[in-house]
Amino acid sequence: MKRTGILNRHLSGALAELGHGHGVLVCDAGMPIPRGPRVVDLAFRAGVPSFAEVLEGLLSELVVEGATAATEIRGANPAAAGLLDGYFPDLALVPHERLKELSGGAHLVVRTGEARPYANVLLRCGVFF
After folding, report:
1. Which is the catalytic residue, given 20, 22, 96, 107?
2. For the chain, how big is the Rg over CA atoms in Å?
């Protein structure tokens, strides 16, 4: 049994399969999930687990070279926007409809229980060397 890190076996296994350039969509409970990508649904109840908790856990185990979020996050969810700005100074912003299109190319979707709007980010995996 793992001692630390992500203990969810489905998520831990999916992360181990990621490679350079793969996309990981971390999304709120309301984001439409596209057909195709592997999905690990962590949503339990509204707000549980939160977008921030899941993102923090993922970033402790992944190398991320870029991130994209919806432009609408700035006005509709300043807390999530601030969180993303703190982690990603070069955060790319696109209209929400475009983010939904881009999410179809993700390798993995991690659905949280977040119940605040636009708490979604598409991460692009990097390499550790």
Report:
1. 20
2. 13
Res. 109 pLDDT band, cuts 50 70 90: very high
What is 56-112 written as a DSSP string?
HHHHTT--EEEEEEETTHHHH-HHHHHHHHHH-TT-EEE-HHHHHHHHTT-SEEEE-
Beta carbons of 92 and 67 less than 8 angstroms apart: yes
Could you tell me the two tokens for 2?
A: 């793992």
What are the distances in angstroms from CA 87 to CA 25, 62, 91? 15, 13, 9
Mean pLDDT computed over every residue of the chain: 97
Residue 72 has pLDDT above 90, yes or no: yes
Amino acid in the structure at residue 117 = P
Question: Which band of pLDDT confidence, cut at 50, 70 and 90, is reported for residue 25?
Answer: very high
Residue 20 a catalytic site member: yes
